[in-house]
Amino acid sequence: MPRAGLTPDRLVAAAADLADEAGLENVTVSALARRFGVKDASLYTHVRGLADLRARLALLAGGEMIDRIAAAVEGREPGRDTLGAFAAAYRAYALRHPGRYAATQITLDPELLADSPAMRRTAEVTYGMLRAYGLREPDLTDAVRLLRSTFHGYCALESTGAFGAPRDVQTSWDRAIDALHVLLGNWPRGG
Predict the structure, then answer these.
(1) pTM tops 0.85
(2) pLDDT by residue (tens digit) across 4-18?
């Protein structure tokens, strides 16, 4: 019988908080059970195991992140204004929620992704922003990969304090977004 008060949503929310506090690698069924003061077995009524818990966490975090990005870009002028707002919301989420953000990098089952409203919304918002630059497939996919790797790499380095030069990190970020805007507006076609 399920323990009163425990639900899959509460468990995933607690896992998200734990990920931000202690790191995604420390999110385990045992750690979550301790947080709720129950035995590990009590959680298996709500999640199938660690992989299921982390997949649910990834979907939760992906949904939170795209909600913030979508709110940031809403009503913006296409181009640099939208790109800047998108990038700023991405970076803010990654830096404020390091464990949740790490969960967004988990490789998920394609069927799970296909059924996820958050993942569909991510594609809609991201591809919509890039279509304003006149991009179509296969260039859209290439541009998404460029943005994701640039944003992720920058955030990963920034979060570990790896930018040691005295230049302001925000200034470098702004210049990177300016450079991406110029690149997207001059994308080499037909690659």
Answers:
(1) yes
(2) 589 999 999 999 999
